[in-house]
Amino acid sequence: MIDCNAFLGGIKTLPPEKLVFRPAVYGLILEDGRLLLGYISTTGKYCLPGGGVELGEPLEAALRREIKEETGLEVTAAQYLGFKEEFFYYDPLDEGFHSFLFFYRCHTHSLDLIPDDQIDDAVVASLHWVPLASLHPDQFQCHGDLILKLLKLLP
User: Fold this and answer.
1) pLDDT tens digits for range 17-67
2) For residue 42, how many other CB atoms are within 10 A of its CB?
3) What percent of the chain lies above the pLDDT cut of 90?
4) What's residue 78's pLDDT?
5) How far apart are CA 105 and CA 21, in angstroms?
6) Among 3.40.190.10, 3.90.79.10, 3.40.50.300, 3.40.1080.10, what is the CATH number of 2-152?
7) Helix (H, G, I), strand (E, B) or coil at 89
8) What is the DSSP string of 31-85?
9) d(CA 122, CA 26)
């Protein structure tokens, strides 16, 4: 049995055969001391833009695609920042995942975000530029400590 972090909180224990392998990639996009984050209205938490890598899709291509779908921004992956393995349970769909998460610093030439009603993401309701100084690990849906640690490594 595998303990998974549940989207709605707590731990859900699943048999390994119920897990789906899901590599994912996420972007840290900074502008004027602010980080671009998605807001999840169902939990009141923030998340980084990004998501699942499709079979046969290179990581950086998935990063560009996911960020374009979720924010409207064209990005380039400027720097690989880190990796995390995760066992995750998505309560609304009763699905478990064994994920490899890859984090990149991204650059964009435009700050024109898509309207909230055009965000192509099942859980993100809106996008926000959040001042770095105001961020705390508990504000993130997951991996808040890791995200803030990665931010401190940036020049």
Assistant:
1) 999 999 999 999 999 999 999 999 999 999 999 999 999 999 999 999 999
2) 12
3) 88
4) 82
5) 24
6) 3.90.79.10
7) strand
8) ETTEEEEEEETTTTEEE-SEEEPPTT--HHHHHHHHHHHHH---EEEEEEEEEEE
9) 16
pLDDT at 155: 77
For tokens 């849906």, name the residue: 141
Please report the pLDDT score of residue 109 as a whole number: 86
Hey, is 127 helix, strand or coil?
A: strand
Residue type, 9: G
* Least confidently predicted of 18-27, 71-80, 140-149: 71-80
What lies within 8 Å, CB to CB, of 35 at 6+ separation is: 28, 29, 129, 130, 132, 135, 151
Domain boundaries, the chain: 2-152
Query: Would you report the helix, strand and coil content of the chain in percent, each value rounded to 5?
Result: 25, 50, 30
